[in-house]
Each structure stands twice: as structure tokens, then as C-alpha cells.
Design a protein that fits this description.
The complex is a heterodimer. Chain A is mainly alpha-helical. In chain A, 72% of the residues lie in helices and 0% in strands. The radius of gyration of chain A is 22 Å and the shape is extended. By secondary structure, chain B is mostly helical. The chains are: A mainly alpha, B mainly alpha.
């Protein structure tokens, strides 16, 4: 049981790490899709099927496409796709900060006496989930719907930009 | 090893990878992807505690994760729209060159 978890974790971490180290933006986006698939596999392993499929739909399906579109819309030439790393000093500083955060987190996790709850795998059916969401959490669901609507409207406004008047009539 | 410990180490490592990516790269899209990875790591924690933690209501962690994913999706849409807007004004996505809000 733990072997599958370790395997999923290693694959996800490896693809995420390689994705953020590659100079080519398209490679990064495609490798991150693999990483998000790994996270969905973790959700399936943990018994949260609904979240796993939501992850596949939202990240693998939607966010990755938006990222690819953004990459393709913002490039001028083929050379634009290859984004070299920032300065070496900055990379070293980032690695130092990330390593420090990882060390603190890992020490806290290992030092805490955690006990996995006994009992078999827990699972929740979609029906229970829907009743929970529309019953006690209905207000939060409405708020999330409002946030999503406003965010998408704002995104359209930001990305559309101002209409520019043509400076001279085309011949 | 306790599976809960492995889950938490996994999410901590994923968070660190996202943090390094967000800090080290200067391309706006890559920084955004690093932030997305950090949000995913937070969701992993919620699911891990739901699965292995003491029994609360049956669906608590899943509902937290649903809201987390929804907010992350909104953040991705707005972030990428900002990246496109920066590119239109500046002609480049390098964050060092985006030093003014009004282009």
C-alpha cells in the first residue's frame, strides 16, 4: 500500500521538478500535466474519487489548456519559448529558501507523533457530497460561484484590453 | 513508515518544488505554475488528513479540497490574463522588466 504511495509521490515530484527546471515553456506545461495527473492518482489512492476527477477536469483539462494558450499567445518567435533561468545567484537563493522550507516542514512532520486512524479506507459518495454541499455549505458554494464568475469576467476584461483605433485607413 | 507521514512529506516536498520554481524563474507563466503547485500541495494535505486523521464529519476534507480547487482555478484564470496583459504592454513576460503598473 505504501509502495504505491511512494511511487506516485516520486513520479509527481520528479515531473514537477523537471517541469520547473526546463528552459522550454511548452515542455514545462506538458510535464506539469503529468504532475497534475500524479496528484489525481494520489487522490484516487486516498479514496477521494470525486476530487480526483475534479482534479483531472480542472487541471489536466482546463488549466493546462489555458496555460498552453497563454504560452502561445505571448510568444513572438521560436526563440521566445526558450526562457533561460534567471541569474545563478537567484537560482541559488531560491534553492536555499526552498530547502529551508522543506527542512522545517519535514522536521515538523517527522517530529510530530502522527497516528493514522484505524479502520479501512474512508470514502464518500457523490450523493453524500451533494447533500453536504447544498445543505450546510450552501452559502460557501454560492460565494465560490460568485468568485468564479467575477474572476472570469475580470480575466476577460484584463486579457481583452482596450480597443485601439486604427491610426490610418488601410489602403 | 506511517502512511500519513509519507503523505505529509510528499505535500511538503511538492510545496518546496513550487516555491523554488516561483522564486527562481523570471517568466510570469512559470511563476504562476509554481504557485499552482503550492496550492495543489495544500490540497494534498487536506485529503491526507481526511483519509488518515481522526474521524470528523464524513466529507469535511473533500469539501475543503473542492473549494480549494475552485479558488485555484479562478486564480489561474486571472493570473494568465494578467500575464497576457503584461505581455501586451511590455512585449515581454520577464518579471524584472514589469516594474510599473501602468504601461
Amino acid at each position: 500500500m505504501n509502495l504505491a504511495l511512494v511511487l506516485i509521490a516520486l513520479l509527481t515530484l520528479a515531473s514537477a521538478g523537471v517541469a520547473l527546471a526546463r528552459p522550454n515553456l511548452i515542455h514545462s506545461a506538458l510535464l506539469l500535466i503529468a504532475s497534475w495527473m500524479g496528484i489525481a492518482a494520489f487522490y484516487l489512492w486516498a479514496g477521494a474519487e470525486f476530487i480526483a476527477f475534479a482534479q483531472v477536469l480542472v487541471y489536466v483539462g482546463a488549466v493546462s489548456m489555458v496555460v498552453l494558450f497563454a504560452v502561445l499567445l505571448t510568444r513572438r518567435s521560436r526563440a521566445d519559448l526558450a526562457v533561460g533561468p534567471a541569474s545563478a545567484g537567484r537560482a541559488a537563493g531560491a534553492l536555499l529558501a526552498g530547502g529551508a522550507v522543506l527542512a522545517v516542514l519535514a522536521h515538523a512532520v517527522i517530529a510530530t507523533p502522527l497516528t493514522a486512524a484505524p479502520g479501512g479506507p474512508r470514502s464518500v459518495t457523490v450523493r453524500e457530497l451533494g447533500l453536504e454541499l447544498l445543505g450546510p455549505h450552501a452559502a460557501a458554494l454560492l460565494a465560490v460561484g460568485l468568485i468564479l464568475t467575477l474572476a472570469l469576467l475580470g480575466a476577460v476584461l484584463l486579457a481583452a484590453g482596450e480597443r485601439r483605433e486604427p491610426e490610418e485607413p488601410r489602403p | 513508515m506511517n502512511p500519513l507521514t509519507i503523505c505529509l512529506l510528499f505535500s511538503g516536498a511538492l510545496f518546496a518544488v513550487g516555491l523554488v520554481g516561483a522564486l527562481a524563474r523570471s517568466n510570469a507563466i512559470l511563476v504562476l505554475l509554481g504557485i499552482e503547485l503550492m496550492l495543489n500541495a495544500a490540497n494534498l494535505n487536506l485529503i491526507a488528513f481526511w483519509r488518515f486523521g481522526p474521524a470528523a464529519a464524513p466529507a469535511t476534507g473533500v469539501i475543503f479540497a473542492i473549494f480549494g480547487i475552485a479558488v485555484a482555478a479562478a486564480e489561474a484564470a486571472v493570473g494568465l490574463a494578467l500575464a497576457i496583459a503584461i505581455h501586451r504592454h511590455r512585449g515581454s513576460l520577464r518579471l524584472e522588466e514589469a516594474t510599473r503598473l501602468k504601461g
